[in-house]
């Protein structure tokens, strides 16, 4: 038996404890649900890089009245509250994930108000301009065209009909693409006839990002085998060639099929009348008995589909290559390199030698004028003199830097050690050089892939240089490729070299790029 005061006190304390536990449980449950939602959003974002989605999004402007300058609150109207994923774009000075983002600028934070919306990216702008863009996140749309169908069987060999093989591969491609977060629209999903005009109209009407048509080949010569990829090379408004090269490259990797010529003279309605990058793949010859047997097997069809999906993925989300040239500028070879880069719209990085800049100042100025990055390689390129001591390296660097500044007007902050940051000549002084140069605000860049074109003793042919470059990338996502614009064969093979890397977006180095260092 409790005394009255004791029992009441005990009851109240127990009641309060129970209430606290209930509230704590509710909070834990709410936090768990929030984590689940966040985790799902992260998984979606990881599955499909945000940069891929932006190109396919629809934009809605929010007026400046929606932004409260003092509080930094962006109010989203109720008609937009149902959007599940969207991106707020204000500028490129800051990025953060989540519904609240700390920014660098005149305000401390932007709090985004919406009904359960998942915000993937917030970018801060000078709030006095207060221009806010709301973009609904949409995945890239891939139009997959299984050739022929219905009364149009395509080519026939024995009991194998082309339309059936095309559809089988297309369905696997659809499944794999959707698993990767893409939206897929099929020209046909069963054995029905769809005219080529209807296929093109459907792709154009949905504004698909890519169009891939799947077919099989046939030849009167039953020994002929291999894959062909066709594209419209006469249309420069769409990047058809890169898509075709990627599919050819990736299907060859997954199937080990015979590579036939990449055909840029496609005269097909589906490749010529679509408004998006497109190509047509002849995945093999049904007229070849051995290849026909592979083409009807599910395992081989999946290998083809994997190659198609990989090619599409690299088109949408390319890896990054920083193409760099050392030892220039030279009158003949650097000019050839610059001409090719200009024609192809590629920007590279040139690590210059001071002596050569003094000999060819106009070429150095052209490098800068055409949008390439320049860095310092050395002034004399004499290893014995440069690496005699830290002071001798800095004297040589300063001479080159002054020359480049006077000739081009660029105060260069990037440099590359002759022979790389670790070599037989600088092993006793490299650490001190790096320390001193870093203190002075300079950044050095080594490389992780190379043409090996500086090795004159091996007398590499152009095809060897290309093979060296391809083999040394090892499939990495970020490549700093070493080449030498002073080498004659490098200029000769550059066009073909670039064709071998459709999976990479080639960019110039900058101070913002994390350097590759030995």
Please give a structural write-up.
By secondary structure, this protein is of the alpha/beta class. It has 16 helices and 24 strands. The chain has a six-stranded mixed sheet. Strands 17, 18, 19, 22, 23 and 24 form a six-stranded parallel sheet that branches. The chain has a four-stranded mixed sheet with strand order 1-8-4-7, covered by helices on one side. Helix 9 (333-344) runs parallel beside helix 16 (488-499) and helix 13 (390-408) packs across helix 14 (430-439). The relative contact order is 0.08. Mean pLDDT is 81; it is low at 1-16 and 34-136.
Concise account of the structure shown:
The chain has 518 residues and is an alpha/beta fold. The chain is 40% helix and 21% strand. Helix 3 (162-179) crosses helix 8.
Taking pLDDT < 50 over at least 5 consecutive residues as the criterion, the unreliable ranges are 1-16, 34-136
What value does the Rg take, in angstroms? 30 Å
Assembly state (oligomeric): single chain
Q: Structural class of the helices, strands and pairings?
A: alpha/beta
Cα distance, first to last residue? 80 Å
Q: Mind describing the biggest β-sheet?
A: 6 strands, mixed
Total of helices: 16
β-strand amount:
15-25%
Describe the global form: elongated
Counted beta strands: 24
pLDDT averaged over residues: 81
Helix content: 25-40%
Please state how the strands of the largest beta sheet are arranged side by side.
12-9-13-16-14-15
């Amino acid at each position: 038996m409790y005394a009255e005061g004791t029992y009441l006190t005990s009851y109240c304390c127990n009641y309060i404890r129970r209430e606290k536990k209930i509230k704590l449980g509710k909070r834990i449950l709410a936090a768990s649900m929030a984590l689940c939602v966040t985790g799902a959003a992260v998984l979606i974002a990881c599955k499909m890089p945000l940069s891929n989605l932006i190109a396919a999004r629809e934009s809605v402007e929010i007026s400046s009245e929606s932004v409260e300058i003092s509080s930094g609150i962006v109010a989203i109207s109720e008609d937009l509250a149902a959007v599940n994923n969207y991106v707020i774009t204000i500028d490129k000075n800051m990025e953060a994930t989540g519904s609240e983002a700390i920014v660098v600028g005149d305000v401390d934070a932007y709090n985004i108000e919406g009904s359960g919306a998942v915000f993937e990216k917030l970018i801060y702008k000078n709030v006095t301009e207060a221009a806010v863009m709301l973009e609904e996140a949409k995945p890239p749309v891939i139009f997959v065209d299984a050739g022929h169908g219905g009364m149009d069987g395509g080519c026939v060999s024995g009991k194998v009909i082309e339309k059936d093989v095309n559809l089988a591969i297309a369905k696997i491609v659809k499944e794999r693409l959707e698993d990767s977060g893409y939206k897929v629209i099929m020209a046909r999903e069963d054995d029905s006839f769809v005219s080529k005009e209807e296929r093109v109209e459907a792709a154009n009407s949905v504004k698909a990002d890519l169009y891939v048509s799947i077919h099989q080949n046939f030849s009167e010569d039953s020994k002929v085998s291999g894959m062909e990829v066709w594209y419209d090379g006469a249309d420069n408004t769409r990047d058809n060639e890169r898509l075709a090269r990627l599919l050819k490259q990736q299907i060859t990797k997954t199937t080990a099929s015979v590579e036939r010529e990449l055909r840029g003279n496609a005269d097909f309605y589906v490749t010529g009348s679509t408004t998006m990058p497109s190509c047509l793949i002849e995945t093999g010859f049904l007229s070849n008995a051995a290849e026909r047997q592979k083409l009807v097997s599910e395992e081989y069809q999946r290998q083809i589909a994997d190659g198609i999906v990989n090619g599409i993925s690299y088109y949408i989300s390319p890896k990054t290559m920083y193409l760099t040239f050392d030892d220039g500028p030279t009158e003949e070879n650097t000019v050839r390199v610059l001409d090719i880069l200009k024609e192809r719209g590629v920007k590279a990085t040139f690590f210059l030698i001071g002596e050569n800049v003094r000999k060819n100042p106009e070429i150095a100025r052209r490098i800068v004028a055409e949008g390439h990055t320049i860095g310092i390689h050395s002034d004399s390129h004499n290893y014995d003199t440069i690496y005699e001591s830290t002071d001798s390296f800095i004297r040589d660097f300063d001479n080159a830097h002054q020359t480049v500044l006077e000739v081009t007007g660029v105060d260069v902050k990037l440099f590359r050690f002759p022979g790389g940051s670790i070599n037989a000549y600088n092993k006793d002084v490299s650490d001190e050089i790096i320390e001193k140069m870093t203190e002075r605000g300079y950044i050095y860049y080594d490389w992780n892939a190379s043409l090996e074109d500086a090795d004159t003793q091996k007398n590499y042919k152009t095809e060897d240089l290309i093979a060296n470059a391809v083999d040394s990338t090892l499939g990495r996502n970020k490549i700093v490729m070493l080449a030498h614009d002073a080498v004659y064969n490098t200029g000769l093979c550059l066009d073909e070299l670039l064709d071998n890397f459709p999976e990479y977006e080639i960019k110039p180095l900058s101070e913002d790029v994390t350097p590759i260092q030995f």
